[in-house]
Amino acid sequence: MAKWLVKSEPSECGIDDFVAAPGGVIPWDGVRNYQARNFLARMEEGDEVFLYHSSCKHIGIAGIVKIVRSHYPDPTQFDPQSPYFDSRSSAEKPRWQAVDMKYVCTLPRLIPLDELKSIPGLSDLPLVKKGSRLSVMPVGEEQWQIILHQVQPA
DNA sequence: GCCAACGTTGGC
DNA sequence: GCCAACGTTGGC
Predict the structure, then answer these.
(1) Which domains does chain A have, with CATH numbers?
(2) In angstroms, how far is C5 C1' from A8 CA?
């Protein structure tokens, strides 16, 4: 089962929004980057995902969610009222995908970006690379375990 | 609020 | 197909 990481501004959708959502489920839509979309499309039901808080006071990994519905056409691309509307998309040829994610847990402590950057085993993670804007990325099993261990320092 | 880094667009 | 211009991301 694959592991992932997604970025989000907590003012838009943070781990607390998952806690408050009906059934803990939130559709992950509005992704408008091809590389990120391609990763979204590879997510499968049951895959676990780190939720990263960006552009806020406490930047870092805040919790874990999981995929409860794999990719389907992102409805916001068809909605002229939506900021994510894309006139180049059609029902026959949808350009963008969404998945549904469900709350799993809030980490006992948020793991800050600078801490993640300091761990040698994570140097390949796009998240810690300078200037990386990728908002959906795969996390290797080994990387996943390293991050989990980091929650409770020995 | 600033600005470096990035992805996308569009003219050629 | 190249690349300059532009808009956006996201840490600081």
Answers:
(1) 3-149 (3.10.590.10)
(2) 28
